[in-house]
Amino acid sequence: MVRFKNRYVLCEVVSEDPRCRQCIEDRAVGLAVRDAIGRVHGDYGLACCSISFTVKYLNAYTGTVLLRCRKDSYRLLCSALPFVRQLESRNQRYPCFLNTLHVGGTIRTCQKFLIQYNRRQLLMLLQSCTNEEERRCIQKSLLSCSLTEEQSQSGDEEDDDGTE
């Protein structure tokens, strides 16, 4: 059996309207991206990209989107993303665009990049704080940005000691 390799494209939805982020759905993002691929690359590009194209993750609060496609066609996907100009959700159109942040081979590498990216954004916010309460809030957020190991891994280590 052959394993198909995928690429994960991490994007952020950039919009002037703050309501846009709260109203977007993964289906709307998927349709907008497919439409852009069809406009830019035609039927061939759309067929290549739609084989395993999915929206794996969407955080409507932060506007973070994780797209998955085949390794062979991720360049077609990345080249069509700047042509997404609006998202349609609940019969309303929201003008926005997708900013590509990272392209990775696994979801885990995209998660690690997103943590580092958010830390850099929080550090920039920390430098522009005006009062001490904002500064404490952002410092607390900075300290909480980390990946934690699963509890099952630490449980396995305790069993190896020979104590049951």
Automatic annotation (TrEMBL):
This is Ribonuclease P/MRP protein subunit POP5. Pfam families: RNase_P_Rpp14. The gene is Pop5. Keywords: Nucleus, rRNA processing, tRNA processing. GO terms for molecular function: ribonuclease P RNA binding. Belongs to the eukaryotic/archaeal RNase P protein component 2 family. GO terms for cellular component: multimeric ribonuclease P complex; nucleolus. Component of nuclear RNase P and RNase MRP ribonucleoproteins. RNase P consists of a catalytic RNA moiety and 10 different protein chains; POP1, POP4, POP5, POP7, RPP14, RPP21, RPP25, RPP30, RPP38 and RPP40. Within the RNase P complex, POP1, POP7 and RPP25 form the 'finger' subcomplex, POP5, RPP14, RPP40 and homodimeric RPP30 form the 'palm' subcomplex, and RPP21, POP4 and RPP38 form the 'wrist' subcomplex. All subunits of the RNase P complex interact with the catalytic RNA. Several subunits of RNase P are also part of the RNase MRP complex.
